[in-house]
Amino acid sequence: MKITSIPSPPPAWAQFQLGPLTIHTYALCIIAGIIAAVWITGRRLAKRGVDAGFAIDAALWAVPLGIICARFYHVFTHVGDYFFPGANLWNVFAIWDGGNAIYGALIGGALGIWIACRRAGVRFWTFADALAPALLVAQSLGRFGNYFNHELYGIPTTLPWGLQIESTNPKFPPGLPAGTLFHPLFLYEIIWNLVGFAVLLLLERRFTLQWGKMLALYLIWYGTGRSYLESIRIDPSSNSFLGIPANVWASFVAVILGVVLLVVQSRRHPGAEPSPFTRPDSRARRKDPVAPAGESEEQISRS
């Protein structure tokens, strides 16, 4: 065991009692990520003329749908962990034990945001671009939950920063000696996401990245990094196709979708959005209820 290796936290740190309640550290990390994403998104929306509070309104739709889809995406890509003779089917809903797939969360969250934007009259792309870099911060905070749950680690490594995983861990590869170190994928993803957050903000200062282009760059950045991390991840129960894990395929889809979105929106909308609102009578709370000078009603309502 190397002196510089990363120890896993004691299993007792994964949860604690608060009166009659059991508080799971994984859940706290997810909540911290949600709070950070709402705060960052609200500040970015305010710069476009939308009340920062709308980020909370959208979260009320996006978070529940995101959690539901994240869980079911994970379950159906790890069928063997939940459906076997004698299995407790209630474990399908045990999100506090980990297993909430980000790609499922993106699908459910996007649906929730679309509903919120549709109801409020805010352009979906405006919100998506405000949210894109915030997602990377939220995902970084959420990955600490994987650390406390002793999950999301990669193949064995001799690097100084290898992660210590107990040999009694259900996913510890058979045949390896106790004390084997593994790539700390949770840490790699945290670093990749925070670097991506900085890169996206720098690109946004240099270029006009609206109409979904920031979202496109997020999909490209995150999908690229995640495809590599998943390829070296130890996750024996994950479903695969043609020998490639499901999450690697999903990462490829995210990158392709991001490239297509960037190309299409760059051609269709080379300039800036005229307004973040899709209709003049929008119910969204605005910083300035008066449309910017020079904008026609037709321009504002165009989505």
TrEMBL record:
Binding-site residues for a 1,2-diacyl-sn-glycero-3-phospho-(1'-sn-glycerol), renumbered to this chain: 143
First-level EC class: transferase
Spans traversing the lipid bilayer: 23-42, 54-73, 93-117, 124-142, 181-203, 215-234, 246-264
Subcellular compartments: Cell membrane
UniProt pathway: Protein modification; lipoprotein biosynthesis (diacylglyceryl transfer)
Keywords on record: Cell membrane, Membrane, Transferase, Transmembrane, Transmembrane helix
Region (Disordered) residue spans: 269-303
UniProt topology in membrane: Multi-pass membrane protein
GO molecular function: phosphatidylglycerol-prolipoprotein diacylglyceryl transferase activity
Bias (Basic and acidic residues): 280-289
InterPro entries named in the record: Lgt
Pfam families according to UniProt: LGT
Top-level taxon: Bacteria
Enzyme Commission designation: 2.5.1.145
Similarity remark: Belongs to the Lgt family.
PANTHER family: PHOSPHATIDYLGLYCEROL--PROLIPOPROTEIN DIACYLGLYCERYL TRANSFERASE (PTHR30589:SF0), PROLIPOPROTEIN DIACYLGLYCERYL TRANSFERASE (PTHR30589)
Function: Catalyzes the transfer of the diacylglyceryl group from phosphatidylglycerol to the sulfhydryl group of the N-terminal cysteine of a prolipoprotein, the first step in the formation of mature lipoproteins.
Protein name: Phosphatidylglycerol--prolipoprotein diacylglyceryl transferase
Species name: Microbacterium rhizosphaerae
